[in-house]
Structure formats: C-alpha cells, structure tokens
Specification:
The complex is a heterodimer of chains A (118) and B (110). Chain A is an all-beta fold. Helices cover 0% and strands 51% of the residues of chain A. In chain A, the strands form two sheets. In chain A, strands 2, 4, 5, 6, 9, 10 and 11 form a seven-stranded mixed beta sheet that branches. A four-stranded antiparallel beta sheet of chain A has the order 1-3-8-7, with no helix packed on it. Chain A is globular and about 45 Å long. The model of chain A has no long low-confidence stretch (mean pLDDT 91). Chain B is built from no helices and eleven strands. The chains are: A mainly beta (118), B mainly beta (110).
Chain lengths: 118, 110
Amino acid sequence: GAVVSQHPSRVICKSGTSVKIECRSLDFQATTMFWYRQFPKQSLMLMATSNEGSKATYEQGVEKDKFLINHASLTLSTLTVTSAHPEDSSFYICSARDPTSGGDNEQFFGPGTRLTVL
Amino acid sequence: QKEVEQNSGPLSVPEGAIASLNCTYSDRGSQSFFWYRQYSGKSPELIMFIYSNGDKEDGRFTAQLNKASQYVSLLIRDSQPSDSATYLCAVSFGNEKLTFGTGTRLTIIP
C-alpha cells in the first residue's frame, strides 16, 4: 500500500516553456500532498503543501506564480513550472500522507521527476 | 529557525558491521521523527519512524530517540552493500510538514 506515482519521470524542455508534473496516490486518498525540490548533493526542500480543494501553501521564497499547484482530487496533485529557466533544473519530488497508515505524519514519496531546462 | 543536523559523511562501514547514523534537531517541540533512505537518482524511501523516547526495532534497523538530548539515531546491523545510500533524517514539528537534514552518505565496504 501507500504507493505514489509521478509523471513524467524525466523531462527536457526549452527555456521559457511550461512543464506540468503529475503526482498520484494510487491506493489511498490523500487530502494533503507535498512538493519538494532537490538539487544535486543537497537535501529535500519543501516547496509547498497541496491541499485538496483549496489553495496550496507555499514555503517562504517559493514563487507561487511560477510554481502553480493544483490539487483537484483526492488522488491527484499537479505542479506546473511556468516559464522555466535553466536554474529551475532540478529533481522534483512529491509526497503524500496516507491517513489510514496508522502512523503520524509519515510521508510516502513518488519516484521523482528530473527536469532539465535548456 | 527549525533545524535538523546530520553529519554529511561519507561514513564507511565494513560489511557485516553495525552502521550508526546520527541526527540532532533544534526544536524541543518536535514530535515525530523519520529515517528515509535515498539511493542516487531515486526518491526517498521510508525506513522507520519513531515518536517516543527509547528504541524501536524493525529487522536490522533500530531507531533511537532521546528527546532530552534532542537526538535521534539509526543503527543498521549486519550491514550489507545494498545498504549503501544516503540516509535522511526528517522531523515533524507538530504539523504535517517535514524538515529534512542534509543526509549522511553511507558506504558499506565488502
């Protein structure tokens, strides 16, 4: 149980284009999903908390107009990187809490999306 | 600012020995503690979580929590080459958000 998928796994795009990344909870309903970014040899940095049916909560320093998050259903959250630039190249990872897992605040991660902006 | 500190390593341990990974955190109000394993190029995988002081064992893994010292550790017994990875400590400060340490790179030497 507690499987989270992401699509695409890898994307290469030109500077100035927009890229959409999907995060799905496959076997549970996730009212809350999280989006992280990880640069090489660095830890995960939380970008935003995605809440089903409401606006995302962004961490300080994350541009909400650049990183658009939509959590339209209990199993799907999307992150759109708008007008991507080379400095946005990174490993984007989503996670979700499984409220039925019996734990508290444990998050299960998707496989990640590696974005390269040329 | 809430911080989670880990020794970045690399930590080299002979195969079959015990690997000991340490993590300290700054906020005494922290409530939940997690250890994740991350292989190169992959996303983190949850190994263990612990909420109460003391030890929690799961197979070859033991998590130890000492809230008075603001310290959490992970022991890996009978280390295997497949345990070679980066281990991330994560702490929840009472809400759903996790704060991650920078990770410790562990190498098991055959």
